[in-house]
Amino acid sequence: MGSTLSQRIIDSLGSLDYVADRVQPKVQAAVAKGGKRTKNLLDGLWLGSPLHPALTDVPIGSWTAALALDGVDLVSGSRAARNGADGALAVGVAGGFAAAASGLSDWRYLSGGSRRMGVAHGLLNTAGLALNTLSLVLRATGRRRAGQLSLLAGYSLNGMGAHLGGELSYGYGLRVNRNVFEDPGPDEFVPVLLEGELPEAGLRRVEAAGPGAEKVGVLLSRAGGELCAIAATCNHFSGPLEKGEREGDTVVCPWHGSRFDLCTGEPLDGPSVFPQSRYEVRVRDGNIEVRAVSDNVQKKVR
Ligand code: FES
User: Are residues 89 and 41 in the same domain?
Assistant: First the structure.
């Protein structure tokens, strides 16, 4: 059996594709209309980490606190607990809207089962956010008990939604640095190409492997007068960077437009927020040789 129970349930719900077919183009158009700055903001490029998972901590933490304080209020009738619950609920609702915007942005690239899972995740969280917003309104209009029940119902839906969000990351690899799954590459310099075969302004993919190790794809280039080498596989969704457009000393991934510095591997435009793994380069006897640098992500997990 190659899929989880959640994946099998979601895959049986064909109506989710109907929703996705209608909503996804609108989300893509809206994010594109906002320009690169908006896109990079929602992706989390400025944070150096995917924004959506970070933002979801705000509503989850705040709503958990609100539920606990509601419990204290019910038991003790404490005014401080009541005010604290209302405040935490309001913070959670504000954080929930921000998390929804960044989550929609992440979902715009997905297809197949992951897109379907994303719809289910989004619908559950939207329903939860609506109930928690209703809870705020009910409290503000004096119907506190109804407001507390509304939060309890919303929180339950958000819990289910959060589980599906975990499946998207752990089951489908959404927003995971894909370079981590590659071979670390050679520890010692190995020849990969004759120096004369690397074009002046082009990109060239080569394979590098140390003794007894798997091969890893390396993207060679000349940038700023030096030889540079980064992972050839885009760390966002494994796009082939050697087929990307070169823009000055950067390369744009052909799949979703992440742009990386050819020498440092730093992401300059999202959706990727992680640097590409890097390789040291030297020339010996007319051969270009590479070896992995010690701070590559592969080396930190094996
Ligand atoms: S695979 Fe998505 S930007 Fe490269």
Answer: yes
Please choose from 175, 237, 259 the residue to mutate so as to test ligand 1's pocket, defined by most ligand atoms within 8 A of CB: 237
Same domain flag for 63 and 141: yes
d(CA 219, CA 78): 63
The residue range of the domain holding 251 is: 178-300
Tens digits of per-residue pLDDT, 58-79?
A: 999 999 999 999 999 999 999 9
* Overall number of domains in the chain: 2
Structure tokens at 262: 């050819």
SS3 at position 214: coil
Q: What is the pLDDT of residue 172?
A: 93
Domain identity same for 195 and 67: no
Token digits of residue 130: 């609506």
Ligand 1 mean position to 136 CA, how many Å? 40
Domain match, 88 and 12 both: yes
Q: What pLDDT shows up at residue 212? A: 74
CA dihedral 10, 13, 18, 23 (to 10 degrees): -30
Pocket test for ligand 1, best of 110, 230, 234 (most atoms within 8 A of CB): 234
Which residues, including other chains, have CB under 8 Å from residue 46's CB and lie 6 or more apart?
40
pLDDT in tens, 243-302: 999 999 999 999 999 999 999 999 999 999 999 999 999 999 999 999 999 888 988 887
Same domain, 81 and 184: no
Determine whether the shortest distance from the Cβ of 105 to ligand 1 is under 6 A.
no
Same structural domain for residues 227 and 161? no
**Each residue of 119-165: pLDDT tens digit?**
999 999 999 999 999 999 999 999 999 999 999 999 999 999 999 99
Q: Is 234 touching ligand 1 by the criterion CB < 6 Å?
A: yes
Q: Where do we find the tokens 């990109």?
A: 203
Tokens 């070896």 belong to which residue?
A: 291
